[in-house]
Amino acid sequence: MHDGLNGYVLNIGGWGNQTTAFQRIDGNDMPQIPNNISQHVEEGRWYDIRIDVKGGKFTYYLDDKQMLETTIENIQHYVVSGYDESTGELIVKFVNATEEPFTTSINLQNVTSVERKGKVVTLTSNDPKDENTLDDPKKVFPRESTYNGFSERFDYTFEPWSLTVLRIKAEI
User: Fold this and answer.
1) CA distances from 88 to 125, 136, 163 (A)
2) Which of 131, 66, 122 is nearest to 94 (CA)?
3) Separation between Cα atoms, residue 135 and residue 85, nearest integer Å
4) Which label site among 37, 56, 73, 116 has the fewest CB atoms less than 10 Å from its CB?
5) pLDDT digits over 114-145, tens only?
6) How far apart are CA 23 and CA 93, in angstroms?
């Protein structure tokens, strides 16, 4: 997660394609969190990457094998992104695990073109403990909408207690 000034990233195959480590973003500084692994990333190979976040621990899996785990305190926002080649869409998934709306700038660096109009799917509730029941099966239900403000750099406000998926038509 990165809010423009502070956050965390997983640097896979960094430092001359020799090391993988979680890093803390602190303004313009990105110190490595002490534990890391030696790892070389092969060019032209598809990898299945997963990061599980639970109880303040980030666990990195590569091709279903646990590679690295670290403890990180007080994370309130999470983001992951990828590109769907079959639809030509950038997919940005964002979790706002706070009771306040969260606005951030999104910068799509190195993108050839971006369509203004795209899709947003939001799963949210007023209370993070809400659950669906037989009496109220859509208490927590994904809501789909159209967004007309996508560009190479744009601001977006994520609702409180939400998982939001941005589907942005783009050429990379």
Assistant:
1) 30, 36, 22
2) 122
3) 40
4) 73
5) 999 999 999 998 888 889 999 999 889 899 99
6) 20
Q: Which two tokens stand for residue 51?
A: 């990061």
162 and 96 Cβ atoms separated by less than 8 Å = yes
Alpha-carbon distances, residue 156 vs 101, 106, 120 (angstroms): 10, 7, 11
Q: What is the pLDDT of residues 82-123, one digit of tens each?
A: 889 999 999 999 998 888 999 998 988 888 899 999 999 999
State the DSSP string of 110-138: T-SEE-S-EEEEEEE-SSTT----SS-TT
Quickly tell me which residue has 């899709």 as its tokens. Answer: 119
